[in-house]
Design goal:
763 residues; Na+/H+ antiporter like fold; disordered C terminus; 30 helices; elongated; ten-stranded mixed sheet; Rossmann fold
Length: 763
């Protein structure tokens, strides 16, 4: 049993053992160990990272937030445990002179800004707008009631708990804010773990925490502005409020556009992907500096910068992951560890302080639960839902610690009051996950919400719905204009870049016509979203590249900036034998991601089709592969905007004597059932058919001659130097008399082509 336990928990135990191995080095004075101040600084970082990460891992495995492990790690390394058991070690490492402390505190202060940047990036204001008025009622009551209780508690507490020279009113503002804010990260973690993130109630809980967080940081910024002036003066308060209001208005109007353009320009102009991370950090520091100049704390600027960066349409998941990685791995453990070092739990042996801490925990818990519960009741929620909301809002976590640390640093809170607040934050945060799990587990799901969840589950597996950015290569002909329209339909609201084949300049009518087609497709998509009662698609930000001939080099250079799909519409794309021209081969070879080709075979008419309810059908061959499903989704996205009818044709060659009740037959029916569910999500009615007695190309060609105006196929790229999709695709391009749109999967790297397994697709 012991061996089993050690094996299961080998990594956390190993991390803790490593910390204990490093600790003896701290037992000796620096002059005896030969360590310089830089060496002690490095040792501090190591201990905070190792202990914080190890305890965070242990807490995560029992369903608690990892950030609490990092805070508890700092508490254990400070006077609460290490300083009590081994004061010499704690004094040498963490209680040095002022210059030594300033080194680790500088990292912690930068960590505050980085944490607020990350918190802002994770603040989804679109979720708040989508949920509606319930979250505003909950957040208003959930902030007001505990804020009033915290302010009143500060007026009644002993004078010994106040910092020297601070006013009760300012301390009350700090304590009220600390008690009223919920930690979005902790709330979202538990809601996501319980699979409630997409449930109506889960979104209301998270949205309420987002609003509380935003209100709280504005209040705390104003409070710090008051605290730094030493007293409350009406004139200074009015100036501070006016400065914060002007900053918020500027940030969410002109500032939003400046941030978006700066990130996009950097992404498009620099070769290194890390340049975007640099610009994000510069934006954070600039906005923090602005808030400092208007007399409020830098945390407000960092938080608002995070919101704007998170909303940027050009920010890829990869870049966001890089930034989140360094913040989570370095700055979070160091900041919360330093906060824990400042807390001295040994003071709680004083019965009076212990009782006051218990009273503070009770006031915080009852005030927060009661405020959120009352807000939920006023919003018309049921008793069980109101209980769940009250439980969910009662998590302080990282937010409370940040507020308390700022109050301690500016001299508003005493060390004893800071310790009491940190203790309260730890207790309420550790109590929230089990109570919220219990409350959410008692809630059932309605039929309407169940259908919405099914639609969103389809979206999560979807290709078109998850596209982040499109790269379009098109000429000025009818194929290029049709491809531009397709880009507008598919990528409405998503940033896209258009490479104008042939090097046209902006005065060329072909350039203008393609941009008009993109805008027309995006506008049609927005109208379709309104009809379907979905959130309207935003106007797509389009970047134009003209004046440079389109080649493999220009496409490869542009592709490095991060695109989800390359859409190509060139008039001369096919040879007389049905293969692809050398130019298409080179362009496709320069892009490793999914490729969409808009093609007009030689047998097709001179014009591209006009899709609509009265037009001919869109034919979509499928065969159960993932790439064929992508093609079906692309066709449904087009049909949902244009209203064109769609026919799904399952093509598979089987024996004539195969009975109906076989595994393969049931598989075909399951594939079509999945396609029908996907069509329901897009609000499109589809006709389905199975053709299994003839070759796939023959079945597709016969159906194409029966009122089909466009064929959309999901195909798999074949390894090799030339662009190939298999014999079926080649036969379709030679025999069919209507335009064809091919959507392929990722390109197989040439070094891996020899060992790449064969993949089956429609092609």
């Amino acid at each position: 049993m012991i061996l089993s336990f050690l094996h299961k928990w080998r990594w956390p135990v190993g991390i803790a053992a490593a910390a204990l191995f490093l600790a003896p080095a701290a037992a000796w004075p620096a002059d005896k160990t030969g360590m310089s101040s830089e060496g002690i600084f490095v040792l501090e970082i190591i201990l905070l990272l190792v202990v914080g990460r190890g305890l965070g891992e242990l807490l995560e495995r029992i369903g608690q937030p990892a950030v609490m492990g990092q805070l508890i790690g700092g508490i254990l390394l400070g006077p609460s445990l290490l300083g009590w058991l081994w004061p010499e070690a704690e004094r040498v490492v963490f209680s040095g002179d002022a210059s030594q402390k300033s080194m680790i505190n500088a990292i912690a202060q930068l960590g505050v800004l980085m944490l607020l940047l990350l918190t802002g990036m994770e603040t989804d204001l679109r979720l708040v707008r989508r949920v509606g008025r319930a979250c505003f009622s909950i957040s208003a009551a959930g902030v007001a009631i505990p804020f009033v209780l915290g302010f009143a508690a500060a007026q009644a507490m002993p004078a010994s708990l106040l910092a020297a020279g601070s006013e009760r009113v300012v301390a009350g503002l700090f304590l009220g804010t600390a008690l009223s804010i919920s930690s979005v990260k902790i709330v979202a973690m538990v809601v996501r773990e319980m699979n409630f993130m997409r449930r109506d109630l889960g979104q209301i809980i998270v949205s309420s925490a987002i609003i509380e967080d935003t209100i709280g940081w504005v209040i705390i910024a104003i409070t710090i502005g008051i605290a730094t002036k030493g007293s409350i003066e009406i004139g200074n308060l009015v100036v501070t409020l006016a400065g914060v209001a002007a900053f918020m208005v500027f940030s969410f109007t002109l500032g939003r556009r400046i941030v978006f353009d700066a990130i996009r320009w950097t992404n498009d102009s620099f070769s290194s992907e890390f340049a975007v991370v640099t610009v994000i950090l510069v934006i954070m520091c600039a906005m923090a500096l602005i808030t400092d100049l208007i007399g409020v704390h830098t945390v407000l600027g960092a938080f608002v910068a995070g919101i704007l960066v998170g909303e940027s349409p050009i920010l890829s998941r990869h870049i966001e992951g890089q930034l989140r990685g360094v913040i989570t791995a370095l700055f979070m453990p160091v900041f919360f560890g330093v906060a824990g070092l400042s807390a001295d739990l040994t003071v709680l042996v004083d019965p009076q302080l212990a009782l006051l801490t218990v009273a503070l925990v009770a006031i915080a818990s009852l005030g927060k639960f009661g405020g959120a519960f009352i807000g939920a009741e006023l919003a018309g929620m049921s008793f069980r839902e109101a209980v769940a909301v009250g439980c969910g809002m009662n998590a302080r976590g990282s937010t409370e610690v940040i507020v308390a640390s700022i109050g301690l640093s500016v001299g508003v809170l005493s060390h004893n009051l800071f310790t009491m607040i940190v203790t309260m934050a730890v207790i309420t945060t550790l109590a929230m996950p089990p109570t919220l799990r219990w409350a959410l587990g008692r809630l059932s799901i309605g039929e309407a919400e169940k259908k919405r969840l099914e639609r969103e589950e389809i979206d999560q597996r979807g290709f078109v719905a998850n596209l982040e950015r499109l790269l379009v290569v098109a000429d000025e002909g009818v194929v290029g204009r049709f491809a531009a329209y397709m880009a507008g339909v598919i990528g409405a609201g998503k940033p896209m870049t258009v490479l104008h084949a042939g090097g046209e300049n902006e005065s060329d009518p072909g350039v203008g016509s393609k941009l008009e087609e993109i805008e027309k497709g995006a506008e049609d998509n927005r109208e379709a979203a309104k009809v379907a009662a979905e959130q309207p698609a935003a106007r797509a930000p389009v970047t134009r590249r003209h004046g440079t001939p389109v080649s493999a080099e220009t496409v490869a250079k542009e592709a490095r900036k991060g695109y989800g799909m390359l859409l190509v519409g060139l008039g001369r794309a096919l040879t007389t034998k049905g293969g692809f021209t050398r130019r298409i081969d080179e362009i496709a070879g320069a892009f490793d991601g999914p490729l969409c080709l808009v093609l007009k075979p030689a047998t097709a008419g001179r014009q591209m089709p006009r899709l609509g309810p009265e037009s001919g059908r869109i034919l979509v061959p499928v065969n159960g592969t993932s790439v064929a499903r992508r093609g079906a989704e692309l066709a449904l996205a087009i049909a949902s905007v244009t209203g064109a009818p769609v026919k799904m044709l399952y093509v598979a060659r089987v024996g004539r004597d195969e009975p109906r009740d076989t595994v393969s037959h049931r598989r075909r029916e399951a594939v079509l059932k999945d396609i029908v569910a996907l069509a329901d999500r897009y609000g499109v009615e589809v006709e389905t058919a199975i053709r299994s007695r003839a070759a796939a190309a023959d079945a597709i060609a016969r159906q194409a001659g029966r009122g089909v105006v466009l064929i959309v196929m999901g195909v798999a790229r074949r390894p090799g130097e030339e662009l190939m999709f298999g014999e079926t695709t080649s036969d379709v391009l030679q025999r069919c008399r209507c335009p064809v749109v091919l959507l392929s999967d990722e390109r197989v790297p040439r070094d891996d082509a020899a060992r790449a397994p064969s993949r089956s697709g429609t092609g």
